[in-house]
Design goal:
The complex is a heterodimer of chains A (282) and B (345). By secondary structure, chain A is α+β, with helices and mostly antiparallel strands. Chain A has eleven helices and 14 strands. Among the domains of chain B are: 77 residues, Serine Threonine Protein Phosphatase 5, Tetratricopeptide repeat; 87 residues, Serine Threonine Protein Phosphatase 5, Tetratricopeptide repeat; 72 residues, Tetratricopeptide repeat domain (Serine Threonine Protein Phosphatase 5, Tetratricopeptide repeat, Alpha Horseshoe), CATH 1.25.40. Classes of the chains: A alpha+beta (282), B mainly alpha (345). Chains A and B meet through helix 3 and helix 7 of A and helix 19 and helix 20 of B.
C-alpha cells in the first residue's frame, strides 16, 4: 500500500518500461519516462506525468494536469498484458477530440477521493502512498495530545470492514448506491459482508483476520486455509466442515472474476459455495 | 377605503395595509377589505399574512378572483400542495383561465408531479401548439418524466425560434436523464449565459456540476438559484446534500426542512434528514425516522442500508442482519430485472 501512488521517478513500472505505446483507432499513445503523449496523426499533446496511481499488480493509471485541473490518463498499464490499454471505464465514452483522447478531467471531489485513498495526509502536504498515519492518525496530534494512536487490532469485523471500506468501499457505500454487477467484485469489504459466514462480532472473518496490512499481500491460496479452518474445523458450531477438501479453500469458495477490460482476475470476497453457471451474486 | 385603494394602486402597499387594518377594526365582516389587504400584503411579499387575509375573505364571501389570489399566494409562499388544491378547483370551474392553468402546471412541475403536468397541458398545447409557455412547461415535464421522444418534439418547436435558454435547459435536462453529464453541463452553461434569470436554470446547472465532480461550483449554483427562488426544491435539497457532505449538518438541516415544506412527506428529503441525524450521532432519532420511512416506502434501498448501519452501531445484530437481507433481496430483484447485470461467472 505504501506504493499506491508514486512520482514517475520512483515508479518501477515506468523505470522498467522506458517506452510504452498503444494505437487505438485514430489515436496513438506513448509514455516515455515521465512524458505522456497522445496523437491523432495530425496533432499531438504532451503532458508531464505527475503521479502514477496503483501498485501495478493489476494496473497503473497516470495523472497529469492541464491548466491546473488534474486529468486521469485514458490509457493505463496492465500487468497481464505488460503494456497499455484503455483505463477501466474509458471505452464506454469514445473521445470527441484530442484532449478527451488524452484523458478525463477529474472533478474536485473526484480528485480528492483519489488522492485520499492513494496517499497520506491529503489535507496538508501530500505524502505518496499509504503510510502509517493514513490508518493510525496524525503523529503530531498524538505527540501534542499525548493520547495513544488509533489501534485497529481489537475492533470487530463490522467496524474494521467500515474502516478498510473507506477506500475499498463499505457495504453501505455499494449497497446504497446500487452498484450491481461484476464490477463490484473490486469492493472487498462489501463482498465479504455479503458472505453467509460474515459475522459482525467475529474478528476471524474481518479484513484483518486474513490480511496483514503491514505485509505484502499473500497470494498463495493454501496460506489462507488456516483462516478458514479456524471456524470450519470445529471452531464455530454453525460452520460446517467442507466435504470436498480442507485445503486450498479459497480456490473454490472465493472464485476469481475478471471485469471486462481490467486484464485482471479479482478474488471475489463473497465467500460461498460457488457453482458453475450460477449468476454473479450481488 | 378610497384612500387605501389609491395607495395600493400607486404601489404604496405599506400605507394601504395601514388603512385597511384601520377599516377592519370597524368593519371586520367586509370580505373586500380582507381581500384587498391580502393583495397589498402580497404586494409587499408578506405571503403568509396575505394568505390569512384571503382565507378570511373567502370564509365571509366566496369569490373566484380571491381564490385565484389565494392560490397564487400559496404558490409564492412555496406552499405548493395547497396551491395545487386551490388552483385545481379554479381550473375545474374556469378551464380557460390561463393564469390558473399555467401556475397549476408549474406547481405540479415543482412538486415533481410530471405526469400531472403532461395530462394538464397536453390538451392546451394541442389547441395552441405555438404557445411558448405551454411548450416549455410540457417539454420540461415530458423530459423529466423520461418521455424523451415526445419531449424532443416539443423541444424542436422551441428550437425553431432559435437558440434560447429554455431550449438549452430542456436539452441539458434530456442529457442529464441519460447520464450524459458533460453534455448536460455544456447546455446548462449556455443556458445560464443566455438567461441567468430563467427559473431552474442554476438549479440544473448545479446538478450537472455536482455530477461532474465540481461540488464547490454546484454549491454556488444552488445558492444562486435560491437567491431568485427560495422555494426551488432541487436547489434546497441538493445544497443540503452538499452541506451534509461538508459536515455542516445544522446548515444542511435548514435546507432539508425547507425542502420538506415545499414537498411535504418527500421520501428523499426525509432520508437526508435521517442521515444528518446519523452523522450527528442521534441514532435513536434517525432509527425512528428511517423505520417510519421504510414502512411507507419498503423498496427504498438506501433507507434500509442506513437502517442496517444504525442497528449495527447500536449492536442490534439481528435487526441489522434483517435489514441487510432486505437490501440483498431488493438488489437481487434489480439484478434479475436488468439483463446487463446478469453476467455469469
Amino acid at each position: 500500500m505504501a506504493r499506491a501512488m508514486e512520482v514517475p521517478a520512483e515508479c518501477a513500472i515506468l523505470r522498467t518500461h522506458p517506452v510504452l505505446t498503444l494505437n487505438k483507432g485514430k489515436y496513438s499513445y506513448r509514455i516515455e519516462k515521465n512524458l505522456y503523449t497522445v496523437s491523432d496523426g495530425s496533432a499531438s499533446l504532451t503532458f508531464p506525468i505527475l503521479w502514477a496511481f496503483g501498485l501495478g499488480d493489476a494496473g497503473q493509471t497516470y495523472v497529469f494536469e492541464k491548466e491546473g485541473v488534474p486529468h486521469e490518463s485514458r490509457v493505463s498499464f496492465f500487468r497481464a498484458i505488460d503494456g497499455l490499454d484503455w483505463t477501466l471505464g474509458a471505452s464506454n465514452s469514445p473521445p470527441a477530440n484530442l484532449m478527451e483522447a488524452a484523458g478525463r478531467a477529474m472533478g474536485k471531489q473526484d480528485a480528492a477521493q483519489c488522492f485520499n485513498c492513494h496517499s497520506t495526509n491529503v489535507s496538508a502536504t501530500v505524502v505518496p502512498g499509504i503510510q502509517c498515519e493514513r490508518c493510525h492518525g496524525s503523529t503530531e496530534t498524538h505527540l501534542t495530545s499525548m493520547k495513544p494512536m488509533k489501534k485497529l487490532g481489537n475492533v470487530d469485523a463490522e467496524e474494521i470492514s467500515n474502516f478498510c471500506g473507506q477506500c475499498h468501499r463499505t457495504w453501505a457505500d455499494v449497497a446504497g448506491k446500487g452498484l450491481l454487477g461484476i464490477t463490484n467484485v473490486r469492493f472487498q469489504p462489501y463482498r465479504l459482508t455479503n458472505s453467509k459466514c460474515f459475522d459482525v462480532d467475529d474478528k476471524r472473518i474481518s479484513c484483518l483476520g486474513c490480511h496483514n496490512p503491514h505485509q505484502e499481500l499473500d497470494r498463495k491460496d493454501a496460506n489462507y486455509d488456516a483462516k478458514c479452518q479456524a471456524c470450519h474445523a470445529g471452531g464455530k458450531p454453525a460452520a460446517k466442515a467442507c466435504k470436498v477438501s480442507q485445503t486450498n479453500c479459497v480456490s473454490c469458495h472465493m472464485p476469481k472474476v475478471e471485469i471486462p477490460g481490467s486484464h485482471y482476475r479479482f478474488t471475489d470476497h463473497q465467500i460461498r459455495i460457488a457453482k458453475v453457471n450460477d449468476p454473479y451474486p450481488n | 377605503m378610497k384612500e387605501a385603494v389609491e395607495a395600493q394602486q400607486a404601489g404604496n402597499f405599506e400605507r394601504a395595509i395601514q388603512n385597511y387594518r384601520v377599516l377592519l377594526e370597524k368593519y371586520p365582516q367586509i370580505a373586500e377589505i380582507h381581500s384587498n389587504l391580502g393583495a397589498a400584503l402580497a404586494g409587499e411579499g408578506r405571503y403568509a399574512e396575505a394568505i390569512a387575509e384571503y382565507e378570511r375573505a373567502l370564509k365571509i364571501k366566496p369569490n373566484s378572483q380571491v381564490s385565484l389570489n389565494l392560490g397564487l399566494a400559496y404558490y409564492k409562499a412555496g406552499q405548493l400542495s395547497r396551491a395545487v388544491v386551490t388552483l385545481n378547483k379554479i381550473h375545474q370551474e374556469q378551464p380557460k383561465n390561463l393564469q390558473a392553468l399555467i401556475v397549476l402546471a408549474d406547481c405540479h412541475l415543482q412538486l415533481g408531479e410530471n405526469k400531472q403536468v403532461v395530462d394538464l397541458l397536453t390538451p392546451a398545447q394541442t389547441a395552441d401548439p405555438e404557445n411558448a409557455t405551454f411548450n416549455y412547461l410540457l417539454g420540461t415535464a415530458l423530459v423529466r418524466d423520461g418521455q424523451t421522444a415526445k419531449g424532443q418534439v416539443v423541444i424542436d418547436k422551441i428550437l425553431r425560434n432559435g437558440d434560447s435558454a429554455q431550449a438549452r435547459l430542456l436539452m441539458g435536462t434530456t442529457k442529464l436523464m441519460v447520464n450524459d453529464f458533460s453534455g448536460a453541463l455544456q447546455d446548462f452553461t449556455k443556458a445560464v449565459e443566455l438567461d441567468p434569470s430563467l427559473p431552474d436554470v442554476y438549479s440544473y446547472y448545479g446538478l450537472a456540476l455536482m455530477a461532474t465532480g465540481d461540488q464547490p461550483g454546484a454549491k454556488k449554483a444552488f445558492q444562486q438559484e435560491l437567491k431568485a427562488n427560495p422555494n426551488n426544491f432541487d436547489a434546497n435539497l441538493q445544497l443540503g446534500v452538499l452541506l451534509r457532505q461538508d459536515e455542516e449538518n445544522e446548515e444542511a438541516l435548514k435546507f432539508f426542512q425547507h425542502s420538506l415544506e415545499i414537498r411535504p412527506g418527500d421520501f428523499g428529503v426525509r432520508y437526508q434528514i435521517a442521515t444528518v441525524e446519523l452523522a450527528k450521532g442521534q441514532l435513536e432519532q434517525a432509527q425512528r425516522h428511517l423505520e417510519g420511512l421504510v414502512k411507507e416506502a419498503p423498496r427504498f434501498t438506501e433507507a434500509h442500508v442506513s437502517l442496517a448501519t444504525i442497528y449495527f452501531r447500536q449492536k442490534k445484530k439481528t435487526e441489522g442482519e434483517r435489514e441487510r437481507a432486505i437490501v440483498a433481496k431488493l438488489n437481487a430483484e434489480k439484478q434479475a430485472n436488468s439483463p446487463a447485470l446478469k453476467a455469469p461467472q
